[in-house]
Amino acid sequence: MVQEKNTLHVIGFYKFNYGNQYFERDHHADFDLIKAANYNYVGSILGYGITEKVTLESEFGYFINKTQVYNIEPLYTLRGYGFSNAIVSLKSGLYSNHFKRVYFTASLGAKIPFSTRPKVIDGVELPIELQPTIGAYGMVIQSFFVKENSGKGLRYFVTNRVEVNFPNKQDYHQGTAVFTSFFISKHIMSPKIKGDWTVILQVRNEFRARDKRGCCFRESTGGTLFYISPQINYSIKEKWNISTLFEIPCYQYFNGTQLGTRFGITCSVSRMINLVK
Amino acid sequence: MKPKLFTIILIMIFIACENNKENSSEGNPDQLLNFESLVAEDDSLNAGESTLVRANATGYQLSYNWSASAGDLLGTGNEVIYAASPCHAGNNEITCTVRDGHDQSQTKSIIIVIL
């Protein structure tokens, strides 16, 4: 939803992701060039309510590490790090019905890489999978549909995010990515449980189209993943929110042969600040 | 007390200089840069295989910069291992630029085919 005018919403988050199994289409593959891969990422999202209906939002983040351990003798570890992309977008409340508690919001943003040069460490250019950013500009289109049932403390969300990438300076064109999530959140209202807790269950689909280098598609890129993400949220005085979510892939389909995801963990802290008061 | 401190500082400077020498290939300052060849042990690989790529060059205080149009380069210096996953199938160009202490550079490329 869009924010109230003159309020600033600050979110800081940390994400860890790990994978150690190759997939060929939707089944495990014997391929084992990379023994394991992981990344640690910290990011922030800032949202500011310009008017009652328009919010200016920015996202940016930093890869503490993007690591791949290679199954060669002896084992070799390659590690990338650095700033990723910034996304600056305008979010607009297109429909709201306070009586029915239904809200629809859409946003359009620009994706701006922190660097358009490939990252080089110790004289060696990192492979594209370990670059903190592909170095390409792009567009991000998002939509948010929210339906609340205050009596039962339930909320239903459907979010969509489409990331359209332009080719980078090396003529590498990352495929369009579409993320669709369905959330159910339940505000726990029980005298037995102290504090303001909410549990959330998310089902997420990620679709990625094939990447292109120059004129040619890269065979083993792109695919479809489904995740189940249980999440728990703790609110302090309706100002601070602390949240943890686990990402468990339940279906992975990859074009060709690719390294899949085993699990992900995200922790976040957010705060709403009214700048007028 | 002061002579002791002075001695410790001198020892630390000496160790730092020695370490610095170990990390650079000194060579002769008058020697011109000559990037003789860039060779790979295998010029075609199956996805998942790897091969050693070596830059043969002579000159003063050489440094090496590597890049690949696709695939992974492991290691540093004049020898790296090139490894490729299935998403890198096709003709991949490995490029090495050798730079000397006088900021002169030469570049060579080779093609490795990933089947």
* CATH architecture label name of chain A: Beta Barrel
What is the CATH level 1 assignment of chain A? Mainly Beta
- Overall geometry of chain B: elongated
- Widest sheet of chain B: strand order? 1-3-6-5
State the end-to-end CA separation of chain A: 21 Å
Average per-residue pLDDT of chain A, rounded, comes to: 95
- The strand count of chain A comes to 19
Concise description?
The complex is a heterodimer of chains A (277) and B (115). Chain A is mostly beta strands. Chain A has a single domain (7-274), classed as monomeric porin ompg (Porin), CATH 2.40.160.
Features:
heterodimer, A: mainly beta, Porin, twelve-stranded antiparallel β-barrel, three-stranded antiparallel beta sheet, 0% helix, globular, B: 115 residues, alpha+beta, four-stranded mixed beta sheet, 1 helix
What does this 3D model show about the protein?
The complex is a heterodimer of chains A (277) and B (115). By secondary structure, chain A is an all-beta fold. Chain A has a single domain (7-274), classed as Porin, CATH 2.40.160.40. Helices cover 0% and strands 69% of the residues of chain A. A 12-stranded antiparallel beta barrel of chain A has the order 1-4-5-6-7-10-11-13-14-17-18-19. A 3-stranded antiparallel beta sheet of chain A has the order 12-15-16, with no helix packed on it. In chain A, a hairpin with a 4-residue loop joins β6 and β7. Chain B has 115 residues and is α+β, with helices and mostly antiparallel strands. In chain B, the strands form 2 sheets. Chain B has a 4-stranded antiparallel beta sheet with strand order 1-3-6-5, with no helix packed on it. A 4-stranded mixed beta sheet of chain B has the order 2-8-7-4, with no helix packed on it. The longest helix of chain B is centred in the first third of the chain and has 22 residues, at 2-23. Chain B is elongated. Chains A and B meet through β9 and β18 of A and β4, β5 and β6 of B.
